[in-house]
């Protein structure tokens, strides 16, 4: 686990506890073990510090930072053995000189003994057991307080620590709810993921100024995606409407907590807007809860002074409830007010309608996304084109799809050119290559063969353009390239029985570039001119 300095308040707690559990002799033995360097592998595990202490045999001491009485050691001497004392002094090093602390604590122990002898004997009190497990009917805020305690002090020190946190949280936190009833156990699992997402965002903010920020950010984004997938898995496995009705108090607190995290508009590796919308979209029957959230959003939007990014998030959240109620036009009116609309933020709706087979709704969203897709990243652009292509299969005509692909050229070149070949629109395919000045040498042989089998004459302008463009580069290598293209052009003329036209063309070409001696030499090598 991660090595770190314990917080000052925990150190102060231990300093108060040591005189209550140690006598002076054992405390000095602990200091001696520390002084001789016998303490090794000091790790933080939840709210306990675990260390290895070399004695006659290797001992493992666990020092509980919240309830000292639960501290243990493999030497079986309990919470007041020299090994525990050695670990205690090793933890004090960042705060001062352990030998001075030893003298101070010994004085406290002698003073306490004198006071105890003079006082009347009182029955020994056992410390109350710590409430160190989450309670089934506690509110989510109490669960999160427990989560924070389990991972108190955890911080990133290298690029894999965030993945370590993710694995540790998923492994250590769920067993506490193993015997809870199903609704609360599933909600508890949801909150584990929500806690991890909030913690990842915290790590991201804390490490932005580090010289290793690239590695930390990359780790945060990868783990954030795992969390989002895990949360979607949780939501899909639950009947949220039934669960909300069964535990309204818990779910009301949950949605408030989610709203607080999701609607800040902060720079974050978590796609909070996606998380917020996917959960609310499942709560279709909770009309009163929706109305309360809409009212809250309206109140927030009414504030005049607000950062544009936060306002965009609130507008998108408010539009989401219009969409849930089937008011797509009103949602678009809200979304048109966005300062920086990003296409990927709305693929949630396209994807949902796509999988439900609501092709008219998919088409409505694709048309609305057209204006923002031009500025989208390549992955989002590819997703948009694939949605369009799949939707076109369910329409009476593909004319709109073709128009969209033409309007998005040159970015849509690869999708458009593939579609033209699939639909046997060979003339349009050739026109597309001519418009983009694509050489046949840069095209796939199978594509050229398909057109040649259909109508070889369609390829003539493509080879004409490429050959003359190569000649105009005016160097020996480009002349050789031109000759390669001319050989193919000659074979096409021959296959369509137009040898005379070829002869006329080649002599005109030679005459046009008569001053290019190197090119003339290449033509003579091909035995096209004398």
UniProtKB/TrEMBL annotation:
InterPro entries: Znf_SWIM (IPR007527). Residues 59-92 form the SWIM-type domain. Keywords: Metal-binding, Zinc, Zinc-finger. It comes from the Bacteria. GO terms for molecular function: zinc ion binding. This is SWIM zinc finger family protein. It comes from Paenibacillus whitsoniae.
């Amino acid at each position: 686990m991660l090595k770190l300095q314990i917080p000052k308040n925990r150190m102060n707690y231990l300093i108060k506890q040591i005189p209550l559990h140690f006598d002076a002799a054992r405390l000095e033995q602990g200091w001696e073990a520390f002084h001789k360097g016998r303490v090794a592998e000091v790790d933080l595990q939840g709210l306990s510090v675990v260390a290895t202490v070399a004695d006659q045999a290797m001992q493992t001491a666990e020092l509980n930072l919240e309830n000292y009485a639960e501290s243990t050691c493999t030497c079986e001497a309990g919470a007041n053995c020299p090994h525990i004392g050695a670990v205690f002094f090793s933890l004090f090093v960042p705060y001062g000189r352990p030998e001075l602390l030893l003298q101070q604590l010994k004085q406290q122990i002698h003073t306490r003994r004198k006071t105890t002898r003079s006082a009347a004997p009182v029955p020994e009190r056992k410390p109350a057991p710590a409430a160190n497990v989450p309670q089934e009917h506690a509110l989510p805020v109490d669960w999160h307080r427990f989560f924070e305690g389990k991972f108190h002090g955890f911080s990133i020190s290298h690029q894999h620590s965030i993945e370590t946190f993710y694995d540790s949280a998923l492994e250590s936190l769920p067993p506490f709810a193993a015997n809870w009833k199903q609704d609360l156990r599933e909600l508890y699992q949801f909150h584990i993921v929500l806690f991890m997402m909030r913690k990842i965002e915290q790590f991201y903010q804390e490490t932005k100024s580090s010289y290793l920020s690239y590695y930390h950010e990359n780790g945060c984004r990868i783990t954030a995606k795992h969390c989002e997938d895990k949360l979607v898995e949780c939501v899909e496995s639950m009947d949220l409407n039934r669960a909300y009705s069964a535990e309204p108090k818990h779910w009301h607190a949950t949605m408030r907590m989610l709203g607080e995290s999701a609607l800040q508009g902060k720079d974050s590796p978590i796609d909070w807007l996606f998380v917020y919308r996917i959960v609310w979209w499942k709560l279709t029957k909770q009309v009163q809860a929706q109305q309360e959230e809409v009212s809250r959003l309206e109140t927030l939007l009414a504030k005049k002074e607000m950062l544009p990014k936060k306002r965009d998030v609130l507008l998108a959240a408010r539009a989401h409830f219009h969409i849930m109620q089937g008011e797509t036009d009103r949602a678009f009116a809200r979304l048109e007010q966005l300062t920086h609309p990003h296409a990927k933020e709305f693929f949630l709706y396209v994807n949902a309608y796509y999988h439900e087979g609501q092709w008219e709704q998919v088409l409505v969203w694709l048309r609305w996304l057209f204006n923002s897709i031009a500025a989208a990243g390549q992955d989002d652009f590819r997703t948009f084109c694939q949605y369009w292509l799949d939707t076109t299969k369910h329409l009476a005509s593909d004319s709109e799809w073709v128009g969209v692909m033409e309007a998005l050229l040159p970015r849509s070149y690869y999708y458009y050119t593939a579609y033209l070949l699939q639909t046997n629109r060979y003339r349009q395919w050739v026109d597309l290559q001519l418009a983009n000045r694509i050489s046949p040498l840069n095209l796939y042989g199978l594509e050229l063969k398909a057109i040649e089998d259909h109508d070889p004459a369609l390829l003539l302008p493509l080879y004409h353009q490429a050959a003359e463009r190569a000649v105009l580069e005016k160097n020996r290598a480009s002349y050789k390239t031109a000759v390669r293209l001319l050989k193919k052009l000659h074979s096409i003329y021959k296959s369509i029985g137009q040898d005379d036209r070829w002869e006329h063309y080649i002599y005109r070409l030679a005459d046009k570039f008569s001053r290019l001696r190197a090119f003339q030499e290449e033509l003579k090598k091909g035995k096209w001119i004398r």
